[in-house]
Design a protein that fits this description.
The complex is a heterodimer of chains A (507) and B (148). Chain A is α+β, with helices and mostly antiparallel strands and 507 residues long. Chain A contains 14 helices and 23 strands. In chain A, strands 1, 2, 8, 9, 10, 11 and 23 form a seven-stranded mixed sheet that branches. A seven-stranded antiparallel sheet of chain A has the order 6-14-15-16-13-19-20, covered by helices on one side. Chain A has a three-stranded mixed sheet with strand order 3-4-21, with no helix packed on it. In chain A, helix 1 packs parallel to helix 13 and helix 4 crosses helix 13. With 148 residues, chain B is mostly helical. The chains are: A alpha+beta (507), B mainly alpha (148).
């Protein structure tokens, strides 16, 4: 339904969302503008420069994160973070770069998707986005303590590749970079796409998709008049992220859930524990880049990764379990804190899913089962060992009988940290790596798109974000999203060349 | 400017929002906040005002139903204390206040109540640790942004 106030935009290719997926597709399809095709990118959030990134925690959380960064799963056990704004989540990641492990690609079993296919794409985006290793001199004490702890325990430890240029160690990567050092899509792919002729429409939220038409709403502050908009397009690429893309399809037609039994299902994430310890002397983890090292020793058997991290005060405090003077005491000396992020590697399951409530808002069902609680306990014990090996005097380790576990108990972590003490309400889990819901694959019963991101039964519609993942990627996902988006862009170009969409529509 | 007026505003001047907590709910919330985050009990007027403004701002983004649920939870905690101890929460001594919240936060008999206490804890911490002006006092220092 449209009314007289509805503003119409006609394009050849509409891309919804501008993060790692949408921004990559925009750049990959930008050369088509030279042939006279109109390519446009639509983004719900605004467009922000260095001066807008004030580093004030709550102001930046409001600006960049959906629902203030705390979208609770229905059970209330996990708080999910997803970002908006031109550049999407690449505005607020730390720039940590991983290639998808070949074993994961084997498990995904998507026809045509293998390490050989992805390797040149991964290499190209790593090069374009300036992926490199930080010099040792740039690494702060929070990270060096992690390194020292791993060395003392005899654990393998690796340095993160990061995609920064001109990083000065401001530390507030998750609040947007105040010197724009991170080379996300807002810095690299989207400017290149615009230069080649792609139009960018911030402040424009797309809510539904019809027959070659997108329906949405433009907010004040963007290039479109505020009010309802419809976008007519020959090709549509959905890249609004794992929470938005399945929801957009569900919102569009009430029977579409039946058309794709897997729509919204097989959602997964990396449930994460932020663990905090206190040292006797200053650590000053807030000075310098927050993430330099990780330990993947437990990834294969233990199903978790340990990474360095350092979060601002409220983000740190909301992860503490307990009340009263102990959390206050820990927070009063942030300069002495060492922080470790434990990323739990959980499998995608059909019951973990995205749904809509009666008002059309996204709801996420995610079950934290006993296996995951055992993994949590293992991860907390490992982080505890690492803290104490690094010299911490006490640590806040959920699952232990008291708020603080002291160094004298370092040898008793197995008996102290118990999975049954990690029930709902006794542990705080958050997740920023959201995956699945429009999974790709060969089987229509368990996937929404074909292996190239084409939505089955909707000619000319594609998906190009982490919702494509058939299962967890088990590492930080942005580079994998970019490589998959590149494959999707290739499919769009191929279909344009061969007239495949016209043929499908006629059929 | 009074605390009541300030709690109805965004931190950013000029962005007025509807009041998120009634005066009675605010009194109940502050008593709970002093137990959840004891350092908040020592706030001066400016810090207290800033804390309530942050909470009001977070609540104003939520649907009206969530604000109603919060008001109900605050009243329910007082009701529970009245039944158990014969006094409302803010009239209990510090040890009883803490025990009450610990009991409710791990209640196996009501997941919704437990979630409510978790939400309340997040709000209480937001009011304290969300204040940028307090960050240097926590030892959270940041490098200056280079000027050129």
């Amino acid at each position: 339904m449209t009314d007289a106030r509805t503003h119409t935009v006609d394009v050849d290719i509409a891309i919804v969302g501008s993060g790692a997926g949408g921004g990559t597709v925009a750049a990959a399809l930008a050369p088509l503008c030279r042939d006279g095709l109109r390519v446009a990118l639509f983004e719900e959030g605004g467009r922000f420069g260095a001066a807008d990134n004030t580093r004030r925690e709550m102001e930046m959380v409001d600006r960049y994160y959906l629902d203030g960064g705390g979208i609770r799963t229905v059970s209330g056990e996990i708080s999910l973070a997803a970002a908006r704004g031109v550049g999407g989540s690449t505005n607020v990641y730390t720039g940590v770069t991983f290639e998808p492990p070949p074993a994961v690609l084997d498990k995904w079993a998507v026809p045509g998707l293998d390490a050989a296919d992805l390797a040149p794409r991964l290499a190209r985006y790593a090069r374009q986005n300036g992926v490199h290793y930080h010099d040792d001199a740039e690494i702060n004490r929070n990270n060096r303590l992690f390194l020292a702890g791993c060395h003392r325990l005899g654990w393998d430890v690796r340095k993160f590749p990061v995609n920064t240029r001109g990083c000065v160690g401001l530390n507030t990567c998750n609040l947007g970079c105040a010197v724009l050092a991170k080379q996300g899509t807002a810095r690299v792919q989207i400017p290149a796409a615009e230069h080649a002729g792609v139009a960018v429409y911030p402040h424009c939220r797309i809510e539904r998709i019809g027959d070659g038409v997108l329906h949405g709403r433009a907010d004040a502050g963007g290039p479109l008049p505020a009010g309802p908009v419809r976008i007519r397009a020959r090709r549509i690429v959905l890249a609004g992220g794992t929470l938005n893309t399945p929801a957009l399809l569900m919102r569009s037609h009430r029977h579409w859930r039946r058309r794709w039994p897997a729509l919204g299902r097989y959602f997964t994430c990396h449930p994460a524990l932020t663990l905090v310890a206190e040292h006797r002397g200053a650590v000053n983890g807030s000075l310098g880049h927050p993430k330099s090292y990780y330990c993947d020793r437990f990834a294969a058997r233990g199903r978790f990764l340990l990474e360095t991290c350092f979060y601002p005060p409220f983000a740190t405090a909301r992860n503490l379990v307990g009340l009263g003077p102990e959390p206050d005491a820990l927070m009063a000396r942030m300069d002495r804190q060492q922080q470790i992020l434990a990323l739990l590697l959980d499998r995608a399951r059909p019951d973990n899913r995205i749904e809509l409530d009666r008002a059309g808002r996204t709801r996420v069902h995610y079950r934290v089962d006993d296996d995951l609680r055992r993994t949590m306990a293992e991860a907390i014990r490992a982080a505890g060992r690492l803290f104490f090996a690094a010299g911490a005097v006490r640590a806040h380790l959920p699952g232990a009988p008291n708020f603080f576990t002291h160094r004298r108990d370092a040898d008793r972590l197995v008996s102290r940290i118990r999975p049954d003490r990690l029930a709902a309400g006794r542990v705080v889990l958050s997740a920023a790596h959201l995956m699945g819901g429009c999974r790709m694959g060969a089987d229509p019963a368990t996937s929404v798109t074909d292996p190239r991101g084409r939505v089955r039964g909707l000619p000319g519609v594609y998906v190009a974000d982490a919702s494509l993942f058939p299962d967890s990627v088990e590492v930080n996902p942005y580079l994998t999203v970019m490589a998959l988006a590149d494959r999707v862009a290739e499919a769009v170009r191929h279909d344009l060349d061969t007239g495949r969409v016209r043929a499908e529509a006629a059929a | 400017m009074s605390v009541n007026t300030l709690t109805t505003m965004e931190n950013d001047p000029g962005h007025a929002r509807p009041a998120a907590l009634s005066p009675r709910a605010r009194v109940r919330f502050e008593a709970l906040q002093h137990t959840l985050v004891p350092s908040s009990a020592a706030f001066d007027v400016r810090e207290r005002t800033a804390a309530l403004a942050l909470v009001a701002r977070a609540l104003s983004r939520q649907p009206a139903a969530v604000r109603r649920q919060l008001a109900l939870l605050l009243a329910a905690i007082d009701g529970y204390c009245l039944l158990r101890h014969g006094r409302v929460f803010r009239r209990l001594d510090a040890a009883r206040r803490r025990r009450t919240l610990e009991r409710l936060s791990t209640a196996r008999w009501s997941g919704r109540l437990r979630q409510g206490i978790e939400g309340l804890t997040v709000l209480a911490r937001l009011g304290v640790y969300g204040q940028t002006a307090l960050h240097p006092h926590l030892g959270y220092r940041l490098r200056e942004v280079p000027r050129d």
